[in-house]
Amino acid sequence: VNSIRYAAFYGCKNLVSLELPASLQVIGEHVFFGCTSLTGLYVDENNRYYSSDDRGVLLNKNKTQLLLAPGGISGYYEIPDSVTIICDYAFNSCNSLKSVVIPNNVTTISDGAFRFCSRLREITFKGDSPFISALAFNTVEANAYYSADNPTWIRDVLNNYGGTITWIPCVECVH
């Protein structure tokens, strides 16, 4: 298998886990949307284009882009420190995700990144204010914690980004 095309597994509610081979080169758009039971996408370590972390979250090979969290990811998730970009719709409809920690190195949270995460209640930012797309948190109702003494967190960035975000300054932003 060298490619998985557009919406190939779309809506497969009973798909729980998937191992992606070393030969895989292309993953199309919307391939796993609606896979609400999917708890892990595990990439063969010899794959030249993709990788995954221990929770089965799909990343690019050098782990700087978080491409896709499985729809069934639950509870607390701390994004790896190597990630700089959370891609479009990366956590779309992850309805069991309750808390996420965004590390220092993240510079961009793309469009719809956390769209429809109905149970996401806590977002913790560990570093500078990243660029956040206007609809990154579409429909999310959550508290967002950020460093009170970090000068990049100015009033202009404390927006709702498509959801209802309550911004809370904190001294030590690790929950």
Question: How is the secondary structure organized here?
Answer:
Layout: E1 3-4, E2 17-20, E3 26-27, E4 40-43, E5 50-52, E6 58-60, E7 65-68, E8 74-78, E9 85-86, E10 96-102, E11 108-109, E12 122-125, E13 131-132, E14 141-147, E15 164-170
Parallel strand pairs: 1-3, 2-4, 7-9, 8-10, 9-11, 10-12, 11-13, 12-14, 14-15
Antiparallel strand pairs: 5-6, 6-7
What's a quick, concise take on this entry?
This protein has 175 residues and is mainly beta. The chain is built from no helices and 15 strands. The chain is globular, with a radius of gyration of 16 Å.
Largest sheet: 6 strands, mixed
Q: Write down the overall geometry.
A: globular
Assembly state (oligomeric):
single chain
Q: Give me the Rg, rounded.
A: 16 Å
Task: Report how far the terminal alpha carbons are from each other.
Answer: 41 Å
Structural class: mainly beta
